[in-house]
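W.,

You were right to be curious about this one. When I first looked at the sequence I had no strong expectations either way, so I just let the prediction run and decided to look at it fresh. Below is the sequence, 68 residues in total, followed by the output.
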Amino acid sequence: MRHRYPIREIARQAGLSTATVDRVLNERGNVTQSTVREVHEAIKDLDRQQSQVRLGGRTFMIDIVMQA
């Protein structure tokens, strides 16, 4: 699957490690089918987020500070 996002961004969206995302994208194996689905779903989510930004015509960045 072709994508235009850095592996780090896909990994953050999917909640996986960059190594796992790399294995999925380069079809290196040793990953479960559910993990493959998670990576592909993360890419779709990133695509949706990009299209929403394009439709809105603006980009918003929000910082959230929480006390631990």
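Here's what jumped out at me. The chain has one domain: 7-56. And, maybe more interesting for your project: The chain has a mean pLDDT of 86.

Coffee later to discuss?

I.
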